[in-house]
Design a protein that fits this description.
about 260 residues, alpha/beta, Rossmann fold, seven-stranded mixed sheet, 7 strands, globular
Length: about 260
């Protein structure tokens, strides 16, 4: 049982909470994120940087200290959803709380304070039945369907909830790329492999020598690379678009009789 004074400290400071669940020395960017009050956050992070772990802390803290909250954790596949939910459940157990026996199978649990945590594979069809989310986490956001993003945003209209999209880049396409490059009102975090103390420089150098340059830059330097099947580059396509030329297809200003 957590003492009231300790519980208050955990409620007031998410960095203290992170240490309580086992993250003894958060990275600087993790501390900044955990103490942020931003409601729209983009995490462009290399592999193994701790982005999913930090997001799991945010999810559990929101569920524990904001009674009645609905937290949705979305990912491209059920396996990835299960991985994220397992982190949350493990942190919950480290606080001395009992995780319901069927929670890991259902990928969800309801807390005594009325909060719910649900982990779902990232399909537009799987999220349509939910509303009033307090926190939406979209893991591997560069790989989810655009339709999912368009389906989840209205869930925040009434609740005023938060949206966190985290990912390693996956080409110059999709909502994660578009929001990272052109989106407004986002708090952005970029974490490359050289900024992660848990990745040894020797391993990084081995990866640099072994992987194709495009893959290495994408996975470890957080750059948005051209997709392999692209005939034209993203920049060439943008440069070819002009407001002075009427599209061959689609409606024009005057329409057709």
């Amino acid at each position: 049982m957590i003492a009231p004074a300790t519980d208050l400290a955990l409620a007031l400071d998410r960095v203290t909470f992170a240490r309580a669940v086992g993250i003894e020395k958060p990275d600087r960017w993790q501390e900044n994120l955990l103490r942020s009050e931003a409601s729209r956050v983009l995490l462009n992070c290399c592999r193994q940087s701790g982005k999913s772990t930090t997001s799991a802390v945010l999810a559990l803290h929101r569920a524990l200290y904001h009674p009645g909250s609905l937290i949705l954790c979305l990912a491209p596949s059920e396996r990835q959803s299960k991985e994220l939910f397992s982190k949350i459940a493990d942190f919950y157990a480290r606080l001395g709380r009992s995780v319901p026996s069927d929670s890991r199978r259902k990928l969800g649990m309801q807390l005594d304070n009325g909060s719910r945590i649900e982990a779902l594979p990232g399909s537009e069809k799987t999220v349509r039945g939910f509303s009033g989310a307090s926190l939406l986490l979209v893991d591997e956001a560069a790989r989810v369907d655009d339709a999912l993003y368009l389906a989840v945003r209205p869930m925040l209209a009434v609740s005023g909830g938060s949206l966190v999209m985290l990912s390693t880049p996956f080409g110059k396409r999709g909502v994660f790329f578009e929001e990272w490059t052109n989106g407004e009102s986002w708090e952005r975090y970029e974490v490359t492999a050289s900024e992660c103390p848990r990745i040894p420089p020797s391993f990084l150098e081995e990866e640099r020598r072994t992987l194709p340059r495009r893959v290495f830059r994408q996975e470890y330097l957080c750059t948005f690379e051209e997709t392999e099947d692209s005939v034209f580059s993203h920049e060439d396509v943008k440069a070819a678009i002009s407001d002075e030329v009427t599209p061959l297809f689609g409606s024009s200003a005057g329409g057709m009789g």
